[in-house]
Amino acid sequence: MQDFTIKFAPSYRAGIWVHSGGEATIKKCVLSDNYYGILTQGADVKVEDCEFRSNKRYGLALLSGSVGDVSKCGFFENGIAGAFVHDSTTKIDGKFSNNGYYGVYLGNSRECVIEKCKFEEHYGVFLRKSDFNTIKNNRISSERYGIVALLGSDGNTIAENTVEGGYGGMYIWDSEKNEIEKNELRDIDVVGIYLRGGGGNVITKNDVSGYYGIELYGSSHNTIKDCTVLGERAGILFVKESEENTMGKCRISNGVYGVYVDNSAGNTIRDCSISSSFIGVYFGNGYENKVDSNSISECTYGIYLRLSSSNGISSNEIDTSEYSQVLLIGSSNNELRDNKCLTDGKGGIYIGSDSNSNTIVSDSYEGGDAGVVVIASRNNRISDCSINGSEVGVYVVESTNNILENCIVNGDTGIQLDGGGGNVIRDCVVEGSYGVVLDGDENTLTNLKVSSIYKAVDIEGSRNVVEASTLPLTQQSIVIHGSSNILRNNKISNSITGIWITGGRGNNIVESEIHECQYGIQIWNKTKDTYIYNTTMSGATIGIFVLGPTGKSDVRNEEIGIERSSEYQSEATPINTTVLNSTLTNNRMDISFLWGEPTASIHYNDLSEGFIGVSALSVNTTIDAEYNWWGAEDGPSPHGHGVRVVGNVDYEPWLKSPPEG
């Protein structure tokens, strides 16, 4: 049958009806204004070069096991769909325009091929419970969705299609194991590819642009790889319990979020390039996800975790332009490992708002105002990292029980702890104008190597421990303002002042070595109960210098370059300074007391090799310096032949040989 024009056909309301067992070839017909243009039921038909126009329901309806071969046909302004295929198989190529809802509708159909068609429709191709169909090399301009696979449409191949405009490019709902490959989805109003429910779909080599690029909503075990995604709001989204999805080798740019993960778990983002987004990768209530070996550049924030836990972030290269490379807010038990981070903005990694028990291992943070920032968080561990901040290397605020270990830290201030306590910094190399600033309590610094210009360790807080550390070549190696701090087994050398204590009480210096400093230890007014035990000092102008108030409002010690403000002048003289079992050698003056009413106990020390052992000038008390070795059996000069004592010093009885130990 060919070259017919059929309108207003009464028979079964179809222009042409081919029923069970029938076979027909229909060519070059125009079928218009019928209820159905062509209706088949259990028949085999070949339709070629036909036009279906303004039929009330469907231009072509293939039903009940029909087999169709439809080519070079046009479907225009039909009521519901250009072609309706139910429980049938067909091949279709043609042009579809302005049909009521659908260009092609497949329901309960298998192994259909929709290829080389052009669609201008609300929905280009719509699948419902249809499996193993091929939709390929079509051009679709839609108002709603270009291609929709709904309610258990599985194993379909959707490839090499171009979809422009519309609410969405592709909508895959409760469907599994579909292959979506090499499609181009451009200028989509809302979402390029939307997977809701279902899983096991493979999305590869697609080029997607839209408000959202690719969104998974409660969909699991899908694979997204080698796609180029431009999302105005977000490139790729995993939301509402989307789990165990894998995304790899994708290129994502120009969104508020590059990748957005919310309330989803077990997803993997690997080998992707994410750029020019406000946030490169965002997790909200996400857990056990992996972000691995990605390149994130030109983003305001690199990776942002909010209320997320047990995620793994490893081997990423992050180059942000404004704020943090990694930001954790209220997120715990995450692991960051082997990431390389560079920023020109505020900082490297920010751990804040009760983000606890996170582990950061072998990361590199370069540039930014601060390399690592920890605020109001606890039990985080940062180890084997290289950290470089222009202002502060590591900044810890009101945080407790965090560990920083085996790190190399640089900054104008290397490490600064404000408030909080119980933090541990160990086995680190620290460089900065100021090395470590402790303005908190009960922190422990162990085995540090600190290089600084002004102060290696500045302790404002109390009950801190600094031990087994090496602190060379600075103005003041350790400065203490707080109380009950312990300095133990440290090695200090070549500084203007080895240890400077100004204020506080009950500070302890034990088993330390101080060499070649202009002042070994300075103890200024307003200081109480300082205890120095089993410590060695050598090569100083003054080994221990105890300085009281002068009554002057502005006194400068030019030798050490420190201005003594009036805050210090009105307080009492340092009292209860104890020096016990220590060795002071080759100092011009071992121990000096100047001004005020100091009290001290100096016992069982080796003071044998200095020019002056103890000096107490302009003081109104007598310094207790009994039981010390002065270098001669007959005591110090001028009484004996040992080193000199000057001023109000009680040196009798003295030791007649060096103290043991």
As a whole number of angstroms, the C-alpha radius of gyration is: 40 Å
The end-to-end span amounts to 118 Å
Helicity level, as a percent range? under 10%
How many helices in DSSP terms?
A: 0
Described by strand count, sense and barrel closure, the largest sheet is:
66 strands, parallel
CATH class of one domain: Mainly Beta
By secondary-structure content and strand pairing, the structural class works out as mainly beta
Structure write-up:
Helices cover 0% and strands 56% of the residues. By secondary structure, it is an all-beta fold. Among the domains are: 1-144; 481-550 and 570-661, Pectate Lyase C-like (3 Solenoid), CATH 2.160.20.10. The strands form 4 sheets. The protein has a 66-stranded parallel sheet that branches. The protein has a 5-stranded parallel sheet with strand order 55-58-61-64-69, with no helix packed on it. The radius of gyration is 40 Å and the shape is rod-shaped. Residues 4-9 and 550-571 have low confidence and may be disordered.
Key words describing this protein structure:
Pectate Lyase C-like; 66-stranded parallel beta sheet; rod-shaped; five-stranded parallel beta sheet; 56% strand; mainly beta; 661 residues
List the helices and strands and how they pair.
Layout: E1 5-7, E2 14-18, E3 23-27, E4 30-32, E5 36-41, E6 44-48, E7 51-53, E8 58-63, E9 67-76, E10 81-86, E11 89-97, E12 102-107, E13 113-115, E14 118-128, E15 134-136, E16 139-150, E17 157-159, E18 162-164, E19 168-173, E20 179-181, E21 184-196, E22 202-204, E23 207-217, E24 223-225, E25 228-239, E26 246-248, E27 251-253, E28 257-262, E29 268-270, E30 273-275, E31 279-284, E32 290-292, E33 295-299, E34 301-306, E35 312-314, E36 317-320, E37 324-329, E38 335-337, E39 340-343, E40 347-352, E41 359-361, E42 364-367, E43 370-375, E44 381-383, E45 386-388, E46 392-397, E47 403-405, E48 408-410, E49 413-421, E50 424-426, E51 429-441, E52 444-446, E53 449-459, E54 465-467, E55 470-472, E56 476-480, E57 486-488, E58 491-493, E59 497-501, E60 508-510, E61 513-515, E62 519-524, E63 531-533, E64 536-538, E65 542-547, E66 555-557, E67 562-564, E68 577-580, E69 583-585, E70 589-594, E71 600-603, E72 612-617, E73 623-624, E74 644-647, E75 649-650
Parallel strand pairs: 1-4, 2-5, 3-6, 4-7, 5-8, 6-9, 7-9, 8-10, 9-11, 10-12, 11-13, 11-14, 12-14, 13-15, 14-16, 15-17, 16-18, 16-19, 17-20, 18-21, 19-21, 20-22, 21-23, 22-24, 23-25, 24-26, 25-27, 25-28, 26-29, 27-30, 28-31, 29-32, 30-33, 31-34, 32-35, 33-36, 34-37, 35-38, 36-39, 37-40, ...
Antiparallel strand pairs: 66-67
